[in-house]
């Protein structure tokens, strides 16, 4: 353990917020607080004394107590410790350590202010000013491989590091060229794309048609790719020179431009293993990537305008500290700004739902059991009894669709009748829950299940472990939060692509039913036709109670109105590439 950690443990134990206050104690008390042997405790005290952080007067003789005097305030010690942890990429462990201490509420408030000053927009350097954005994050970044990103955060960061052939405007839903100058469709089964010249990867090489062919071959070869199913329709990809790529399909594929607009279809270089080295053509390149932080730096040779931000630093926060150390992306750390109190609010609607793992043996395989759980988890009753704020019952992935629905209330006696029909015999089922934030809601679900006679065990949902079959297979149900912004078609079908959570949860027959809907969806010639088919698939989820839609809630993020060029992507996150601030 570090010396500063010993100091913070001692200071917090004596609950003094003032320095230079003499406190009576004993060596035995010190040993108990530090949890070490007598020689080690004496060594720690001597080192703390030598460092000038304490004064220590050992008691001499029976009846004489020792005296300790803290010279360094608890808050200054915490600031010193946090700075060290940030510099050494141990921020998450550091915050977990602080969370384990009995720190007064006032100190937590000061620490929150300190972190808020440390995060946000910063400037470094004297002659050559560097503009830096530091962001705390409460979710794991597991992968930056665009073909395998699994969360909204990973998807967003992939859009900063890589580029796609096409882009879609999140407001107008119009698709436009990006890495390409344009495209042709000589016939219903063939798409021809014309690449821009002079586009450079982060490792220096120029983009060619070979990279595009490699990217899609890689997608088709990997069952972990969300677009692996594309192989059912794609015949081959070939080039006609360095800057022309031709896609040949087995059948008409009018939906293809939407797929090319997805960050999961980002172009990667053929001569780099993305799992070992993250390389794209995007406005930012990866300087470093670890479980603790992600450092992005502006790519000077970006084929569009260079980003104004020089560096973006993302630090991992422990989830249990999310409510205690809040952060909003303001610009108060930049000297030249005016009217700093004004903000721009961005709302993202999130849907909470429960998915049954029907491929796992157990009572949840019976339709009547799933129906019983649906009736027991009456959405109106849940919202009232758990005092959930600003949530609305859901019956769809989309808030706009749920608003049109009527939500009848159900009784526990109705649920018990369906439970009898299912033949349930008292087995304990396991449900994974996404975060500490939803534990109270999960406990309500557990209680309601108990009231109809169903035993439910709750376990935390760790996405890394969930991707491991041995952990995932123990779950009968999973509670998740899903972001689907607007009715952008690619956002609708991506969650149901290959290797998705839904496909891992459902039986082979249910996956085949989803494939049928997907086949019809991507063959639809118009947006209205495709949305109608997607609604049919949602109806099927509801009728079979494979997915229990719970409620919608909003996440609100405040940004300073002094931000220039801010543009929110399809998942409600701001695009780093366009952000800038007026300097003096």
How is this structure best described in words?
- The protein is 34% helix and 22% strand.
- The chain has 20 helices and 20 strands.
- It has helices spanning 3-14, 27-34, 38-51, 74-87, 91-100, 105-118, 152-161, 209-221, 256-260, 367-376, 379-385, 399-402, 412-422, 439-451, 463-466, 469-472, 489-493, 501-505, 508-523, 527-544; strands spanning 22-25, 54-57, 66-70, 120-124, 130-137, 166-168, 175-177, 180-187, 190-195, 234-239, 244-249, 284-289, 293-298, 311-316, 343-356, 391-393, 428-433, 455-460, 477-483, 547-560.
- The chain has a six-stranded mixed sheet.
- Helix 1 packs antiparallel against helix 4 (74-87), helix 4 packs antiparallel against helix 5 and helix 19 packs antiparallel against helix 20.
- The chain starts with a helix and ends in a 24-residue tail after the last strand.
Summarize the helices and strands and which ones pair or pack.
Blueprint: H1 3-14, E1 22-25, H2 27-34, H3 38-51, E2 54-57, E3 66-70, H4 74-87, H5 91-100, H6 105-118, E4 120-124, E5 130-137, H7 152-161, E6 166-168, E7 175-177, E8 180-187, E9 190-195, H8 209-221, E10 234-239, E11 244-249, H9 256-260, E12 284-289, E13 293-298, E14 311-316, E15 343-356, H10 367-376, H11 379-385, E16 391-393, H12 399-402, H13 412-422, E17 428-433, H14 439-451, E18 455-460, H15 463-466, H16 469-472, E19 477-483, H17 489-493, H18 501-505, H19 508-523, H20 527-544, E20 547-560
Parallel strand pairs: 5-14, 17-18, 17-19
Antiparallel strand pairs: 1-3, 2-3, 4-5, 6-7, 8-9, 9-11, 10-11, 12-13, 13-14, 15-19, 15-20, 16-20
Helix pairs in contact: 1-4, 2-3, 4-5, 4-6, 10-13, 19-20
């Amino acid at each position: 353990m570090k010396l500063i950690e010993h100091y913070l443990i001692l200071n917090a134990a004596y609950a003094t917020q003032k320095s230079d206050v003499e406190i009576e104690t004993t060596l035995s008390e010190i040993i108990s607080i530090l949890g070490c042997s007598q020689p080690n405790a004496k060594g720690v005290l001597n080192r703390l004394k030598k460092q000038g952080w304490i004064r220590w007067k050992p008691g001499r003789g029976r009846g004489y107590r020792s005296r300790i005097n803290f010279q360094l305030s608890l808050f200054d010690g915490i600031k010193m410790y946090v700075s060290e942890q940030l510099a050494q990429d141990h921020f998450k462990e550091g915050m977990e350590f602080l969370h384990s201490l009995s720190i007064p509420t006032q100190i937590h408030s000061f620490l929150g202010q300190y972190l808020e000053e440390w995060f946000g927009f910063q400037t470094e350097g004297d002659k050559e000013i560097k503009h830096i954005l530091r962001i705390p994050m409460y979710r794991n970044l597991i992968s930056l491989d665009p073909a395998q990103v699994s969360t909204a955060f990973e998807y967003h960061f992939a859009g900063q590091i890589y580029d796609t052939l096409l882009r879609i405007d999140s407001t107008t839903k119009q698709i436009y060229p990006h890495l390409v100058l344009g495209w042709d469709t000589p016939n219903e089964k063939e798409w021809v794309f014309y690449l821009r010249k002079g586009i450079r990867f982060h490792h220096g090489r120029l983009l060619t048609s070979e990279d595009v062919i490699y990217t899609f071959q890689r997608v088709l070869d990997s069952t972990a790719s969300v677009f692996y199913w594309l192989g059912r329709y794609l015949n081959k990809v070939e080039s006609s020179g360095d800057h022309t790529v031709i896609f040949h399909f087995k059948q008409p594929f009018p939906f293809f431009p939407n797929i090319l607009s997805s960050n999961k279809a980002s172009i990667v270089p053929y001569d780099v293993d993305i799992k070992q080295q993250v390389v794209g053509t995007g406005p930012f390149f990866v300087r470093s990537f670890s479980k603790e932080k992600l450092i992005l730096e502006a790519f000077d040779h970006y084929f569009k305008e260079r980003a104004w931000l020089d560096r973006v630093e993302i630090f991992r926060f422990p989830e249990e500290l999310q409510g205690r150390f809040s952060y909003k992306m303001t610009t108060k750390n930049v000297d030249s700004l005016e009217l700093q109190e004004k903000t721009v609010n961005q709302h993202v609607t999130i849907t909470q739902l429960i998915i049954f793992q029907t491929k796992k043996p157990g009572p949840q395989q019976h339709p009547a059991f799933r129906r019983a759980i649906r009736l027991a988890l009456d959405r109106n009753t849940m919202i009232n009894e758990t005092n959930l704020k600003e949530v609305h019952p859901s019956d769809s992935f989309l808030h706009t669709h749920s608003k049109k629905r009527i939500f009848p209330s159900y009784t526990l006696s109705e649920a018990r009748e369906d439970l009898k029909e299912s033949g349930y015999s008292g087995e304990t089922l396991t449900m994974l829950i996404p975060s500490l934030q939803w534990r109270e809601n999960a406990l309500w679900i557990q209680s309601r299940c108990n009231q109809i006679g169903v035993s439910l065990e709750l376990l935390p949902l760790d996405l890394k472990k969930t991707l491991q079959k041995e952990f995932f297979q123990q779950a009968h149900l999973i509670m998740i939060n899903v972001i689907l912004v607007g009715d952008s078609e690619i956002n609708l079908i991506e969650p149901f692509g290959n290797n998705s959570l839904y496909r891992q949860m459902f039986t082979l027959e249910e996956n085949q039913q989803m494939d049928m809907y997907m086949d019809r969806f991507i063959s639809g010639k118009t947006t209205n036709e495709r949305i109608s088919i997607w609604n049919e698939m949602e109806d099927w989820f509801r009728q079979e109670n494979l997915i229990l839609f719970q409620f919608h809630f909003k996440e609100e993020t405040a940004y300073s109105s002094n931000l220039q060029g801010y543009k929110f992507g399809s998942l409600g996150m701001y695009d780093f590439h366009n952000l800038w601030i007026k300097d003096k």
